[in-house]
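Record type: monomer structure entry
Structure origin: computed from sequence
Chain ID: A
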Amino acid sequence: MSIIGITGHRRLKYPKTIREEIRFSLQYFISIHTLPQVSAISAMAAGSDTIFAEEALALGIPVNAIFPFEEEEYQKDFTAEEWQQVMAVLSHPLCTLTIRHPGPVSSPEARTAAYLATGEFLVQQSAVLLAVWDEQPAKGRGGTAEIVQYALSHNREVHLVKGWRINSEEKGAGDRRLLEEFNSLDSRAIRFKEWLFEPAWIGGIIMGVLAAASFATGLAFGNQLTAQQRYIFSAGEAVCLLFSAILLLWLARRWKRKFLSYRKSAEYLRNLIRFRQAGIYVSGSTGSADAALLSTAAAEAIMQPPAGPSMPYGLHTIRRLIWCFAAEQAAYQQQKRINRFTHRLHTTEKILSYVKWLFFAVALLNFIVESEHYFHFILIPGLHSFHDVLILLWIVLPSVYAALEGVNYFSEWHTNIAISGQIKAELEDTMKTVLHCKDEKSLTAAAENLRHTLERENKNWLQNFGKKEPDIKP
């Protein structure tokens, strides 16, 4: 049984990032030892300890929660929300609780000693220690730095997860600036895509369909409309066409260019940060990032040598970092690209099928109405009163079908699914390779392969967009 322990800071500056790194790190340990042979141990402090326990349970890893003293006393160190998280972990069927020092705590010194003893006990029970640490000295007895040093002195395998505390003086400020810059660029890319580009693109298509509907309404109901009503529908058609042109030909293109610029730069920084965390130097320039989008501080940080993990952590930390990065990117390809594109493709094809059969049904009903009128018989009572509606649908449905076919064709979902599938397969091959790397040279080679895979993906969709938009400068 391989027992994974955790030590780390309580007040984290980037808890979401730490949660993701802990999740993929646990998956890494599972890939080495297999799930039935992996368990976790945590002192359940707020922040890193609780996040670690939550992610372990989510992966089906049993957790042994270690309290330094009784629940009533330990609860004093938590906010109400933090303690609620702890209780949720303890209620899980895969979680067990051990109290190291039952009974009352007589003094602050005894309290500190209990924390230190609990941390040392956790290290003694663990084969591997995951340390969410900013590599700064401990602020008190039993802190993360002291537990890490204790683990190293007892020959435990320590894996560093760089985790900055709130309002702390951070070692490796350049890496911190790069992370902040990535978060900023990533947020802007998401905003341009989800709030601006995609709504403009969808809105332009809808406006085009509405223009066709306005034209068809005036044509189908022309004999029943007044001159003013016909003018209103004609004006509606013109306005819808105008807005469709503005949205599709100007705003959507403009915002897509912005989205791609921010996305490209964010992805470059993501790659750079991950490799620098492993102590691997990627580039001495801004690479594929758009230099105009980078802050001066970030551009300077790129030129600085990577801080990387300190030597005591050895190759096992670098191996884990590279594996986790490849696993993170493989999960991204599956969840954000393959699954999303497949869902959109199936949804669009299903709607296209409905529109097609509805059009055939309308055409058939319209033929029946014309036959009833010509041969003077009634096959479907009351159908003649809907004749104008049938004409309207008969005109509009081809426009809707053409618009959806355009969405299906220009989105290239089939191509994107195939590309992402290939990239995911390459990433999974890299993950397997990394597990067998025994020296720095082989790890560096695996990291270079990973880098080339990610760079190629970045270039692929930029080139695809460039082919459709020849007027856009790179």
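Annotation 1: Residues 467-474 have pLDDT under 50 and may be disordered.
Annotation 2: The first helix runs from residue 15 to 33.
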